[in-house]
Amino acid sequence: MPARRVVTGRSQEPRRRYAEELRRLRTARGLSLRALAEAVGWDPSLFAKLESGETLGSPEVAEALDQFYGTPGLLLAMWEMALGDLTQFKEKYRRYMALEAEALSLWQYSVSRPPGLLQTAAYAQEALTAGGLSGKELDQQVEARVGRRKALEGKGAPPFRVILAEAALRNSLRDPKAWREQLEHLLEWSERPNITLHVLPFGTGPHGLDSTDTMFLRLPGGRTVAYAENDVWGELIEETNKVEQLHRTYDEVRDLALSPAESRKFILRMLEEVPCDPSI
Q: Of 69, 78, 188, 241, whose CB is crowded by the most CB atoms within 10 A?
Protein backbone atom coordinates (compact mmCIF):
# COMPACT_ATOMS: atom_id res chain seq x y z
CA MET A 1 0.00 0.00 0.00
CA PRO A 2 1.46 3.40 -0.92
CA ALA A 3 2.38 5.75 1.88
CA ARG A 4 -0.37 8.20 2.79
CA ARG A 5 0.20 11.73 1.67
CA VAL A 6 0.22 14.21 4.52
CA VAL A 7 -2.11 17.09 3.78
CA THR A 8 -1.58 20.24 5.82
CA GLY A 9 -3.60 22.68 3.78
CA ARG A 10 -0.49 24.82 3.40
CA SER A 11 2.09 25.08 0.68
CA GLN A 12 5.37 23.28 1.28
CA GLU A 13 7.27 25.72 -0.97
CA PRO A 14 9.19 28.01 1.44
CA ARG A 15 8.33 31.23 -0.39
CA ARG A 16 4.61 30.48 -0.42
CA ARG A 17 4.66 29.16 3.12
CA TYR A 18 6.20 32.42 4.31
CA ALA A 19 3.47 34.43 2.54
CA GLU A 20 0.73 32.20 3.98
CA GLU A 21 2.10 32.48 7.52
CA LEU A 22 2.20 36.27 7.30
CA ARG A 23 -1.41 36.35 6.14
CA ARG A 24 -2.48 33.87 8.84
CA LEU A 25 -0.87 35.87 11.64
CA ARG A 26 -2.44 39.12 10.48
CA THR A 27 -5.95 37.74 10.04
CA ALA A 28 -5.74 35.94 13.39
CA ARG A 29 -5.27 39.37 14.97
CA GLY A 30 -8.20 40.77 12.98
CA LEU A 31 -5.99 43.42 11.38
CA SER A 32 -6.30 45.06 8.00
CA LEU A 33 -3.16 45.64 5.94
CA ARG A 34 -3.37 49.34 6.73
CA ALA A 35 -3.70 48.71 10.48
CA LEU A 36 -0.69 46.39 10.40
CA ALA A 37 1.32 48.94 8.44
CA GLU A 38 0.50 51.67 10.95
CA ALA A 39 1.48 49.42 13.86
CA VAL A 40 4.78 48.24 12.38
CA GLY A 41 5.77 51.29 10.36
CA TRP A 42 5.89 50.22 6.70
CA ASP A 43 3.69 50.99 3.72
CA PRO A 44 0.54 48.82 3.38
CA SER A 45 1.47 47.96 -0.22
CA LEU A 46 4.58 46.17 1.05
CA PHE A 47 2.53 43.85 3.25
CA ALA A 48 0.15 43.17 0.39
CA LYS A 49 3.10 42.09 -1.77
CA LEU A 50 4.54 39.98 1.06
CA GLU A 51 1.28 38.11 1.58
CA SER A 52 0.81 37.49 -2.15
CA GLY A 53 4.35 36.17 -2.49
CA GLU A 54 5.24 38.95 -4.92
CA THR A 55 8.23 39.95 -2.80
CA LEU A 56 10.10 38.68 0.26
CA GLY A 57 10.95 42.08 1.65
CA SER A 58 14.01 42.54 3.83
CA PRO A 59 15.22 40.74 6.96
CA GLU A 60 14.47 43.93 8.91
CA VAL A 61 10.78 43.60 8.01
CA ALA A 62 10.75 39.94 9.09
CA GLU A 63 12.39 40.86 12.41
CA ALA A 64 9.91 43.70 13.00
CA LEU A 65 6.99 41.35 12.36
CA ASP A 66 8.51 38.73 14.67
CA GLN A 67 8.60 41.34 17.42
CA PHE A 68 5.06 42.55 16.69
CA TYR A 69 3.50 39.07 16.60
CA GLY A 70 5.57 37.67 19.48
CA THR A 71 7.17 34.97 17.29
CA PRO A 72 10.86 35.53 18.08
CA GLY A 73 13.03 34.31 15.20
CA LEU A 74 10.27 32.32 13.47
CA LEU A 75 9.48 34.68 10.61
CA LEU A 76 13.15 35.56 10.09
CA ALA A 77 13.97 31.86 9.78
CA MET A 78 11.12 31.40 7.30
CA TRP A 79 12.35 34.43 5.34
CA GLU A 80 15.85 32.90 5.12
CA MET A 81 14.41 29.59 3.93
CA ALA A 82 12.31 31.37 1.31
CA LEU A 83 15.33 33.34 0.12
CA GLY A 84 17.26 30.14 -0.40
CA ASP A 85 14.41 28.37 -2.18
CA LEU A 86 15.88 26.96 -5.38
CA THR A 87 12.53 27.04 -7.17
CA GLN A 88 12.98 30.75 -7.83
CA PHE A 89 15.91 30.06 -10.17
CA LYS A 90 15.53 29.14 -13.82
CA GLU A 91 15.69 25.44 -14.57
CA LYS A 92 19.14 25.37 -16.13
CA TYR A 93 20.69 26.88 -12.99
CA ARG A 94 18.98 24.72 -10.38
CA ARG A 95 21.52 21.92 -10.20
CA TYR A 96 24.36 24.43 -10.27
CA MET A 97 22.76 26.42 -7.43
CA ALA A 98 22.35 23.26 -5.37
CA LEU A 99 26.06 22.49 -5.83
CA GLU A 100 27.07 26.09 -5.11
CA ALA A 101 25.28 25.85 -1.76
CA GLU A 102 27.45 22.83 -0.87
CA ALA A 103 30.77 24.25 -2.11
CA LEU A 104 33.77 24.26 0.21
CA SER A 105 35.61 26.77 -1.99
CA LEU A 106 34.87 28.71 -5.18
CA TRP A 107 36.95 30.20 -8.00
CA GLN A 108 35.48 32.47 -10.68
CA TYR A 109 36.56 34.31 -13.82
CA SER A 110 34.20 37.13 -14.88
CA VAL A 111 34.40 38.54 -18.38
CA SER A 112 32.03 41.49 -18.61
CA ARG A 113 30.31 42.00 -15.23
CA PRO A 114 31.12 41.76 -11.54
CA PRO A 115 30.22 38.24 -10.36
CA GLY A 116 26.65 37.73 -9.20
CA LEU A 117 27.85 36.84 -5.70
CA LEU A 118 29.38 40.32 -5.36
CA GLN A 119 26.79 42.47 -7.14
CA THR A 120 24.83 45.15 -5.37
CA ALA A 121 21.05 45.09 -5.71
CA ALA A 122 21.22 48.10 -8.07
CA TYR A 123 23.69 46.35 -10.35
CA ALA A 124 21.70 43.11 -10.32
CA GLN A 125 18.52 45.03 -11.16
CA GLU A 126 20.04 46.75 -14.19
CA ALA A 127 21.82 43.61 -15.43
CA LEU A 128 18.71 41.43 -15.15
CA THR A 129 16.53 44.10 -16.74
CA ALA A 130 18.94 44.19 -19.68
CA GLY A 131 18.49 40.42 -19.89
CA GLY A 132 14.76 40.88 -20.47
CA LEU A 133 13.31 40.36 -16.97
CA SER A 134 10.63 42.63 -15.55
CA GLY A 135 7.92 42.81 -12.91
CA LYS A 136 7.60 40.06 -10.33
CA GLU A 137 10.18 37.80 -11.94
CA LEU A 138 12.75 40.61 -11.92
CA ASP A 139 12.13 41.32 -8.22
CA GLN A 140 12.49 37.64 -7.36
CA GLN A 141 15.72 37.23 -9.31
CA VAL A 142 17.28 40.34 -7.77
CA GLU A 143 16.41 39.06 -4.28
CA ALA A 144 17.78 35.65 -5.16
CA ARG A 145 21.04 37.01 -6.56
CA VAL A 146 21.70 39.29 -3.61
CA GLY A 147 20.63 36.56 -1.18
CA ARG A 148 23.26 34.15 -2.54
CA ARG A 149 25.91 36.37 -0.95
CA LYS A 150 24.89 35.18 2.52
CA ALA A 151 26.82 31.98 1.80
CA LEU A 152 30.06 34.01 1.84
CA GLU A 153 29.38 35.53 5.26
CA GLY A 154 30.01 34.37 8.79
CA LYS A 155 32.11 31.71 10.42
CA GLY A 156 33.02 28.86 8.13
CA ALA A 157 32.25 30.80 4.93
CA PRO A 158 34.01 29.22 1.94
CA PRO A 159 37.04 30.85 0.29
CA PHE A 160 36.12 32.68 -2.91
CA ARG A 161 38.74 33.76 -5.48
CA VAL A 162 37.62 36.06 -8.30
CA ILE A 163 39.44 37.19 -11.42
CA LEU A 164 37.73 40.24 -12.94
CA ALA A 165 38.54 41.12 -16.54
CA GLU A 166 38.97 44.88 -16.83
CA ALA A 167 35.92 44.93 -19.10
CA ALA A 168 33.82 43.90 -16.08
CA LEU A 169 34.98 47.08 -14.35
CA ARG A 170 34.36 49.28 -17.38
CA ASN A 171 30.81 48.05 -17.89
CA SER A 172 29.44 50.76 -15.63
CA LEU A 173 25.87 51.47 -14.58
CA ARG A 174 23.93 54.44 -15.97
CA ASP A 175 23.66 55.96 -12.50
CA PRO A 176 27.13 57.13 -11.35
CA LYS A 177 26.11 56.90 -7.69
CA ALA A 178 25.01 53.26 -8.10
CA TRP A 179 28.20 52.46 -10.01
CA ARG A 180 30.32 54.04 -7.29
CA GLU A 181 28.49 51.91 -4.72
CA GLN A 182 29.27 48.79 -6.78
CA LEU A 183 32.99 49.56 -6.95
CA GLU A 184 33.07 50.38 -3.22
CA HIS A 185 31.20 47.14 -2.59
CA LEU A 186 33.91 45.17 -4.42
CA LEU A 187 36.61 46.88 -2.39
CA GLU A 188 34.79 46.23 0.87
CA TRP A 189 34.32 42.54 0.13
CA SER A 190 37.88 42.14 -1.10
CA GLU A 191 39.01 42.95 2.46
CA ARG A 192 37.24 39.91 3.89
CA PRO A 193 39.59 37.08 4.82
CA ASN A 194 37.80 34.53 2.63
CA ILE A 195 37.67 36.74 -0.50
CA THR A 196 40.57 37.14 -2.95
CA LEU A 197 40.09 39.52 -5.86
CA HIS A 198 42.32 39.91 -8.94
CA VAL A 199 41.92 42.30 -11.86
CA LEU A 200 43.02 41.19 -15.34
CA PRO A 201 43.85 44.45 -17.12
CA PHE A 202 43.50 45.14 -20.81
CA GLY A 203 46.64 44.34 -22.77
CA THR A 204 47.43 40.95 -21.24
CA GLY A 205 46.72 39.26 -24.57
CA PRO A 206 44.43 36.41 -25.66
CA HIS A 207 43.81 33.51 -23.29
CA GLY A 208 41.65 30.42 -23.00
CA LEU A 209 38.79 32.12 -21.10
CA ASP A 210 38.50 35.22 -23.31
CA SER A 211 34.73 35.08 -23.78
CA THR A 212 33.54 32.67 -21.09
CA ASP A 213 32.47 33.33 -17.52
CA THR A 214 33.63 30.34 -15.50
CA MET A 215 32.99 29.18 -11.92
CA PHE A 216 34.67 26.24 -10.19
CA LEU A 217 33.19 24.62 -7.09
CA ARG A 218 35.14 22.28 -4.82
CA LEU A 219 32.61 19.97 -3.23
CA PRO A 220 32.62 17.72 -0.16
CA GLY A 221 34.60 14.58 -0.97
CA GLY A 222 37.18 16.49 -3.02
CA ARG A 223 35.33 16.59 -6.35
CA THR A 224 35.42 19.82 -8.38
CA VAL A 225 32.82 20.85 -10.96
CA ALA A 226 32.71 23.86 -13.26
CA TYR A 227 30.00 26.03 -14.74
CA ALA A 228 30.83 27.93 -17.92
CA GLU A 229 28.54 30.39 -19.69
CA ASN A 230 28.38 33.23 -22.17
CA ASP A 231 25.47 35.29 -23.50
CA VAL A 232 24.13 32.32 -25.50
CA TRP A 233 24.63 29.15 -23.46
CA GLY A 234 25.54 27.77 -20.05
CA GLU A 235 26.95 24.36 -19.21
CA LEU A 236 27.60 22.46 -15.98
CA ILE A 237 30.83 20.49 -16.48
CA GLU A 238 31.36 17.49 -14.22
CA GLU A 239 33.71 15.26 -16.23
CA THR A 240 37.02 15.22 -14.32
CA ASN A 241 39.33 15.57 -17.33
CA LYS A 242 37.41 18.54 -18.72
CA VAL A 243 37.27 20.27 -15.33
CA GLU A 244 41.01 19.80 -14.78
CA GLN A 245 41.82 21.15 -18.23
CA LEU A 246 39.61 24.18 -17.67
CA HIS A 247 41.13 24.77 -14.24
CA ARG A 248 44.64 24.76 -15.71
CA THR A 249 43.50 27.49 -18.07
CA TYR A 250 42.08 29.41 -15.10
CA ASP A 251 45.45 29.16 -13.31
CA GLU A 252 47.18 30.54 -16.40
CA VAL A 253 44.80 33.50 -16.45
CA ARG A 254 45.36 34.10 -12.73
CA ASP A 255 49.12 34.29 -13.40
CA LEU A 256 48.44 37.12 -15.88
CA ALA A 257 46.28 39.08 -13.43
CA LEU A 258 47.29 41.73 -10.91
CA SER A 259 47.97 40.78 -7.31
CA PRO A 260 45.18 41.40 -4.78
CA ALA A 261 46.98 44.54 -3.52
CA GLU A 262 47.50 45.92 -7.02
CA SER A 263 43.93 45.03 -7.91
CA ARG A 264 42.62 47.11 -5.03
CA LYS A 265 44.71 50.08 -6.23
CA PHE A 266 43.30 49.57 -9.72
CA ILE A 267 39.70 49.74 -8.47
CA LEU A 268 40.52 52.78 -6.32
CA ARG A 269 41.82 54.55 -9.43
CA MET A 270 38.58 53.66 -11.21
CA LEU A 271 36.60 55.17 -8.34
CA GLU A 272 38.39 58.47 -8.92
CA GLU A 273 37.06 58.45 -12.49
CA VAL A 274 33.40 58.13 -11.44
CA PRO A 275 31.62 61.53 -11.52
CA CYS A 276 30.73 62.81 -8.08
CA ASP A 277 27.10 63.28 -7.10
CA PRO A 278 26.41 67.00 -7.69
CA SER A 279 23.88 67.01 -4.83
CA ILE A 280 26.61 66.29 -2.25
A: 78
Long-range CB contact pairs, 169-177, < 8 A, 24+: 169/114, 169/199, 169/266, 169/267, 169/270, 171/112, 171/113, 172/274, 173/122, 173/123, 173/126, 174/126, 175/122, 176/274, 176/275, 176/276, 176/277, 177/277
**Taking each helix axis from N to C terminus, what angle separates 59-69 and 14-28, rounded to the nearest 10 degrees?**
40
DSSP type of residue 234: E
**Any idea what DSSP says for residue 267?**
H
Residue ranges with strand state E in 141-269:
160-165, 195-200, 213-218, 224-229, 234-237
Question: In this structure, which CATH number among 3.30.70, 3.30.870, 1.10.287, 1.10.760 belongs to the domain 91-273?
Answer: 3.30.870
Exposure string (b/e) for 23-37, b if CB count within 10 Å is 16 or more? bebbeeeebebeebb
**Is the CATH code 3.50.50.60 the one for domain 14-83?**
no
Give pTM, 2 decimals: 0.68
Residues 224-260 pLDDT 10s? 999 998 766 778 899 999 999 999 999 999 999 999 9
